[in-house]
């Protein structure tokens, strides 16, 4: 049956069985129940404004991190290593920023695909690191690594908190995806700071302690948003 045919059948059914009229006081009760707690919603700012805010936060955290921790890693990198690390990293940041802003509005196109492409680029970044950095022996692998991990998280966590300021205005359909995407963006801020700061070019050090900052932030964002969303659903 077509939609128009179904509509005609419904109209005929309603016409043959008229609904009983309600008293005015009863109608008033229904109106109060439906409309009583409705409030006007402030519309979202233009997408470009949120994208600029996200980009500004990332650049501010990254610049502050480079200033406070130094640029020893940048000077230790070869031109090939700089290209292999920062080109896919910058592309991942741009796509994640675009994706997370798109997720603020319900049913916006390209949000999920941008996040997926960014994940592919992150894997490409990891493979590039494995290709351009060499393994080396370290006598204090864990101690030096934990120092780098703490440094990366020291900038990733503030970045995540700052990203939450514009993102809480959104109304995305997948808060879990938004949390993971924002966490990944914050983690990339910490990773970028480490690549500028840390002169240790041991591939094991970079993959285990630098990259782990982004991985931990993605998982933390996913878990936090999942728990928060479940609590919100339980209260509503």
Q: How would you summarize this macromolecular structure in one to three sentences?
A:
The chain is mostly helical and 236 residues long. It is built from nine helices and no strands. The relative contact order is 0.13.
Describe this structure in words.
The protein has helices at 3-16, 24-35, 47-69, 72-76, 79-102, 111-132, 141-167, 175-197, 203-235. The protein is mostly helical and 236 residues long. The chain has one domain. The two termini are 37 Å apart. The mean pLDDT is 84.
Relevant terms:
236 residues, mainly alpha, elongated
Write the topology of this structure.
Layout: H1 3-16, H2 24-35, H3 47-69, H4 72-76, H5 79-102, H6 111-132, H7 141-167, H8 175-197, H9 203-235
Helix pairs in contact: 3-5, 3-7, 3-8, 5-6, 5-8, 6-9, 7-8, 7-9, 8-9
Portion in beta strands = under 5%
Average pLDDT value?
Answer: 84
Unreliable segments of 5+ consecutive residues: none
N-to-C terminal Cα separation, in Å? Answer: 37 Å
- Describe the sheet with the most strands: none
Radius of gyration: 25 Å
Q: What count of helical segments does DSSP give?
A: 9
The shape is elongated
The tally of beta strands, per DSSP, is 0
Secondary structure category: mainly alpha
Tell me the series of helices and strands, N- to C-terminal.
Answer: HHHHHHHHH
Q: How many structural units, i.e. domains?
A: 1
Helix fraction, binned, reads over 70%
